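Exercise 3.2. Students should predict the tertiary structure of the chain below and write it as structure tokens, then compare their answer with the key that follows.

Predict this chain's 3D structure.
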Amino acid sequence: MEILQMAIILFIFVLVCIPTGKYIYKVAEHEKTFLDPVLDKVDNCIYKIAGISKEEMTWKQYIAALLASNGVAAIFAYIILRIQSIGLLNPNHIGRMEQGLTFNTVISFLTNTDLQGYSGESGVSYFSQMIVITFFMFLAAATGLAIALAFMRGLAGRKKTMGNFYVDYVRIITRILLPVSIVFAVFFISQGVPQTLAANKTVTTIEGKLQDIPLGPVASLESIKMFGTNGGGFFGANSAHPFENPTPLTNAVQIIAMLVFAGSTVVCYGHMIKKKKQAISIFVAMSILFLIFLPICYSAEKAGNPALARVGLSQAMGNMEGKEDRFGIAGSVLYTNATTSTSTGAVNNMHDSLTPLGGATALMNMMLNVIFGGKGVGFMNMIMYAILTVFLCGLMVGRTPEFLSKKIEGKEIKLVAFAIIIHPLLILMFTSLALVTKQGLAGISNPGFHGLTQILYQYTSAAANNGSNFAGLGSNTMFWNTTTGVVMFLGRYLSMIILVAVASSLAAKRAIPESTGTFKTDNAIFTITLIAIVLIIGALTFLPGVALGPIAEHLTL
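Answer key:
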């Protein structure tokens, strides 16, 4: 029954991706949609007020516009968090955020990571929740999808420009993110998620004790949190909290929400390049990688924790430590794999309480960072591996490698290699730094193999712009706030810049007609080869760290 439950959710996800991907394509290419009569006027008003020119941009202009808009937003967000103690929409009298934590929080939500060193209900005011946290969820998601659309235009190669960032940014918010968020915010409210500006309520429990019930504008944040692959929670317990994720139905909807736009980006890509079969190959490769790790995690959690069994705790239902009864093993495991595969980072169970192998699958999803991934960026990472696959296969058969009828030469491969190296470099170098400094070691709550996993997971989550963490790590210190902030920033923007440069380089080349010697990128051989290369490179870079952490811990149970 649990397996059927997971299968139904994933089946619905695949079905929804098809029309959603086509709709995103229409928005990207300014084709007619049913929302145009109203939203054209809204968009034009925004362009006029903001002074936005609709002129096409080169890839450098596109990146410059992206960085400038993100940078200005970051400055305002930093100021707001530092002065949030003022009485504006602050009925619970939340104090201003500490300097190091403010830096980490701004970078975290700016980069679509949403790693939280604070507890939402007690760390930020309602004003900050709406103007900084919720707004940044729209900003980061729109930025990620916009850069993916520019990347696709470059690969399609129909022109040397990549669109206009500001136009893409506005259209993505008004035509995709905002309408969906409004609809599902209403759905979450119907399921019991609060949406209010009232102060927290103090009630008397049946035991006669006083308890504070936190409230706030939760539903509006929750909808964009999931659809924007953001993940930051209104409450410290995130989606394990009954006010964020109250029922099995909301849990299923949240899983689909995390996956749908990430999968739809691949469908949009097929329409953009006019090669739907290649998009299917990419989608299938992502799906197979997802389905490789999902049963490993499910089997590990269903088998229970031997350490708990030895002290007399029943494991008949599996490893329920850190999980909610209303979701069970299946609802928790599928959520865990969806959130780490899509770089969302929301959690409905504590990953620190997963079995070692269960935690290892979540870790590997983020280390590979290509299994659907965050809004747009995961897709770009998979195409990076697709280009590498074509190049390696071309070398093996002695032919000039081609991708989308464009020759792949030294410049593109150097950029791709650099983009691939950045991810493990950030994770492993900063993990090593934490392990040789007192400040880094001080955050570990469990010594030994699990402690290493805590550190490795934290930097992997930061570099993959995921945001989930092993909750046992004491990361709200100046050392952790600063280092993870740097990793999040570099992990987000370096790969964006490099991959758009690759697309621009390919766009400038003359198309070569396909021949009998052209390596096909839309069949089963390509899909299998792509999966193999992703797994081989992942194993070569990360297997030693995983072996010293979760695998070693598993062997000692």
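Discussion points: The longest strand covers residues 201-204. Residues 2-274 form one domain.
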